[in-house]
């Protein structure tokens, strides 16, 4: 089920205000002892090259997350014929996407090379181990990319399916490797309180101080847990704390204050990391996969916005702004706090910082090619998910590099 977000129109007045706020946040977080934020960026775009992080988290190594997309004549590593794990809506070639240039690029970190995913190496490294993705359909998108990248060596068998079919466990028998996805778009406990809602797109209740036990109760069983969240925070939400409604986002209820989506987003990550740090039996490495920007142009998902570009934009053209910048900043802040708190308890955290790379790929989404032209679907033009094969495959190139560095 793919029902997605509504992106609030970007208010002209909010631009300078947001910028001042973000700049202030960067200022207050910047310090020489801080590995994530190096001294102050002059603009949000400039924040990226100034951050230096290595796959292992150790200083002095190449930052695989800053770089550019360079032409790759080899083309995709799988197709919709060789891989069955491509979800319909992301099977862009099937639905008539006319250009295939978007699969002929590779991510080139500044100062080093990112090797193409080696499925045999991945499975060798992961023998006797397990990886869980926690999040929404973009997390699933990455898991499906991983299944396709691994497919030349082995296909998994589903060993467990949640009743709603949204959470799945896969087993790679020949390599004793377990892969799983836990569906948790809000990371905390949530429920659809009103299927219609004020914007005709569902109204969700988020219980900001309650764990989503459907994933938190299972993390002990995993060596790596890849956490992410994002696009579901563009929907109308009601926030609950101590069992009481304390406010909402875009819910249009007269008796509730609009606390903004950011309130819920920050609390959701804080609660998720608190659960991870507090879980006694958990010995795994927690990986935060950062926000993957959407690229609607000329409107939003429901007002005719599309993403028709056929190639990446240059590193200096990609600017993260508005809501997307704010969500990204919140993630990094909460990640950093969790990492510090976790270090005292022997917890390991890693950042899979895909945001700078994906910001440059407006060409990587299904746009109108996620379904047959005559089909009426909820997400008309999909500029949120990523075509398979496509630039999202680079997330797993990066993941493998991190797993390798982690040994
Ligand atoms: C794969 O993509 C081709 C176009 O390149 C399309 O004709 C075909 O129907 C697709 N096949 C499957 C199984 O998705
Ligand atoms: C598979 O991996 C698990 C976890 O490391 C281990 O306990 C088990 O013995 C392994 N099974 C086989 C058949 O190697
Ligand atoms: C707000 O009003 C709605 C009905 O209009 C009610 O169901 C809800 O309980 C109220 N919430 C609070 C926090 O008073």
From TrEMBL:
It comes from Trapa natans. GO terms for molecular function: O-acetyltransferase activity. The keyword Ribonucleoprotein does not apply. Keywords: Membrane, Signal-anchor, Transmembrane, Transmembrane helix. The keyword ATP-binding does not apply. Residues 114-402 form the Trichome birefringence-like C-terminal domain. Residues 61-113 form the Trichome birefringence-like N-terminal domain. The chain crosses the membrane at residues 7-29. This is Trichome birefringence-like N-terminal domain-containing protein. The lineage of its organism: Eukaryota, Viridiplantae, Streptophyta, Embryophyta, Tracheophyta. Belongs to the PC-esterase family. TBL subfamily. It is a single-pass membrane protein. GO terms for cellular component: Golgi apparatus; membrane.
